Amino acid sequence: MPIFIPAIAAALTIASAGVGAQPAAPVGEIKGDAWAHTSESLAASVQQADVCLPAAATGGPSFCGKFKDIPKLGGRAVPVVVFLHGSSGLGLKAIGEWQAWLAGLGYASIAPDSFALPGHVTYKSPIDKGSYERIHALRASEIAPTVAALKSQAWADSGSLVLAGTSEGAVPVARYRGTEFVARALYAWSCETNYFVKEPLNAFEPGKPVLNVISVTDPFFSKSNTWIGNSEAQGHCGAALKDNNRASVLLIPGAPHTLLNLPAARSATAGFLSLIPKP
């Protein structure tokens, strides 16, 4: 049974309250024509990845920059968070701030750049589920080459890898079927049927820690979205994680979709990562 922090049943009741006739869904839009990575763009997604390394990994000041620009290091191996960005890419300022914060806690992070793919599709929701699934497949393909690249890095403790993602990037985190990661963290995704997926296809490993952080009234995946496409939607991953006593769900009242750096989200993340053994 997941742990809900804090207990906000009243807020959930308010968020789920019925309303009258619902307005029609907005008209979505798709731009770009590249729906799948090439071998070249996958390699580039790692080389152009945003990396942040703590002082313990560098042997000196922390380093935040591109994977391809990592300098010669004199530190030791540390736990690493592999982070999949949302649909807006690495240009979202909050991601860099979050990675720098992780480094301050002693954790390295790497965020592959999905937009290393020329002509990468972009969209304005809602679009058809088939197109969403093609995008989810594209994003899922970025995990394996990132893990492979980490195996060659002396600063990466391959036994302490955490898979994390936000929004679009959290879908492949929930679905990932590999066993390389000791824990997973999902931000701004609900792990349930809605307009964004044909099926959730969650693949959480029994007994491994999972953290889910999302707004009580997430604009896309809660019932506050009038075109969510699921009248029974709960707006969080609680149902998907109900049998995992090492899973936690944090619902933040009034939070925006991008909530990585909210105090409550950071506090939950820090506590969650403290469960990951450091070498």
Helix content: 25-40%
How is the main sheet built?
9 strands, mixed
CATH topology: Rossmann fold
The total count of helices amounts to 8
Estimate nothing, just give the exact number of structural domains: 1
How would you classify the helix and strand content by structural class?
A: alpha/beta
User: Radius of gyration in whole Å, from Cα?
Assistant: 18 Å
User: Termini, distance in Å?
Assistant: 29 Å
Mean pLDDT: 92
CATH architecture: 3-Layer(aba) Sandwich
Strand order of the largest sheet: 1-11-10-9-8-5-6-3-4
Please provide the count of β strands: 11
Query: Low-confidence runs (pLDDT<50, min 5 residues)?
Result: 1-20
| Strand/helix succession | EHEHEHEEHEEHHEHEEEH
The CATH top-level class label: Alpha Beta
3D shape: globular
- Percent of residues in β-strands: 15-25%
Question: Can you tell me about this structure?
Answer:
The chain is an alpha/beta fold. It has a single domain, classed as Rossmann fold (3-Layer(aba) Sandwich), CATH 3.40.50. The chain is 25% helix and 20% strand. The chain has eight helices and eleven strands. It has helices at residues 9-16, 39-47, 55-58, 93-105, 129-140, 143-150, 170-175, 263-273; strands at 3-5, 29-31, 50-53, 63-66, 78-84, 108-111, 122-124, 156-166, 183-187, 210-215, 247-252. The strands form two sheets. Strands 1-11-10-9-8-5-6-3-4 form a nine-stranded mixed β-sheet, sandwiched between helices. The chain has a two-stranded antiparallel ribbon with strand order 2-7. The longest helix is centred in the middle third of the chain and has 13 residues, at 93-105. The protein is globular, with a radius of gyration of 18 Å. 44% of the residues are buried.
